[in-house]
phosphoglucomutase (alpha-D-glucose-1,6-bisphosphate-dependent) (Vasconcelosia minhoensis LEGE 07310), 543 residues
Amino acid sequence: MSSQTVSTQPFSDQKPGTSGLRKQVPDFQQPHYLENFIQSIFNSLEGYQDKTLVLGGDGRFYNRPAIQTILKMAAANGFGNVLVGQGGILSTPAASCLIRKYDAFGGIILSASHNPGGPEGDFGVKYNVGNGGPAPEKVTNAIFEHSKKISEYKIEDAEDINLDQTGTHKIGDMTVEVIDSVTDYAALMESLFDFDQIRSFLSGNFKMCMDSLHAVTGPYARDILEGKLGAKSGTVQNGEPLEDFGGGHPDPNLVYAHDLVELMFGDSPPDFGAASDGDGDRNMILGSNFFVNPSDSLALIAANASLVPGYRDGLSGVARSMPTSQAVDRVAEKLGLDCYETPTGWKFFGNLLDADKITICGEESFGTGSDHVREKDGLWAILFWLNILAARKQSVEDIVREHWQTYGRNFYSRHDYEGIDSQAANQLMDGVKSQFLQLKGKKLGDYTVKYADDFSYTDPVDGSVSEHQGLRIGFEDGSRMVFRLSGTGTQGATLRLYLESYEPDPAKHDVDTQAALGGLISLADEFAKIRELTGRDEPTVIT
Ligand code: G6P
Ligand code: ZN
């Protein structure tokens, strides 16, 4: 076996987005495309010689060949050891857990998260740093710079290794350990939650369903929920990871998790329903005939943290991404906690978590997590809810309604216009921004503008500044509308419109969300000319 140096030409489109490099599978299958990007990652790092790399993915199409290539490249580039999940499977939070637990130099996670998979679907490569979290912008920028000038890559001339059995192999001087994908992650969950209390709760009349959407959480959910916690066998549905996610869209929302939604809103629904996405970092929580908005879920998790052993000693602070509703801000205020507002993207929580400024954080995009790893964590959120339910012995709906009674309700909705023309999307954003200067104090419909800006964030830990993170218009009564272009799509552009209003009066908490936000919705359309510019009469997805 020997190491080879292969000549290559740069690709101009290897700029990592919100969450790594995400492209359609045929893009990744171009000769040298994956290799160039992996070598660009390695070229942007220093000091990894003889260190450990964690490697795995969500099981989507191209996961296995990519892993074999990356193993050979890691060997040729001088890594000492690679920990790879059995079958190539590692959920994103499990990879983060392994990087931390085994003090790895970093990790490569192969996933396009909630985007569909298969030969014509999406694929992605994310690099995580030594704290277990997504590479910060200075690292992703360096990777991009290297990708633009790469001229060669190194790869070991070696046989593929057997990923299906745990065991130890050698590629050149590098050791490859194929490890059980679940064990370390499950142990971490057991250290945070009251497994005895949840187990005894699940042995009663409580009924639950977890939909893994044929994505990565199947093996984790089966082991933890059905194995360790004794949930009825069959609790985990669609638990076999498939390369094309069974043709579905592995995104846990009301549109794409339709089977679960049908069950939870059908005749005699279970008490609790949950789903997670392709790579296991997102979550959706449902009660019988009841949807828990992710922003509310974050607020509720923070408010109930003292019921959970791993968080019983108190929280150091909380954080949410800018477009996430301000429900958690109200909890923070009441509990006397600092509350940070970051740009969209989990990576922005990393410094706050490392500096112990926050313990719990979350995003409207169905992501919740804590300082236990440096990624959002779908099963963690589901277990958190189970722990709260086991401790409070009330229904999901009652718990949420009580929360609104205490803190008031932040009506919240996100309207997505997927796959629109990129030029039209930019025109729309420019149009919104161009009106900002004269906006302060002005009346728009029934609302008076308090502020209008292009969100910019200064990281309180390292002082780095991230600009152009979404256009927000805040009104005097606390309502907001936010316009943002998605950073994770692979076709055209996706416009996200985030809408929020606050209602302190419990007598008005029953109003339908879209009705409660109706005024803001039409105002946003008028103000940004959404229908006119996108040519769409309605959003593709409403959550
Ligand atoms: C990924 C990131 C999240 C982020 C989301 C935003 O899932 O991990 O932290 O909230 O992308 O996606 P968007 O499509 O709105 O840019
Ligand atoms: Zn994901």
Observations:
- The mean pLDDT is 96.
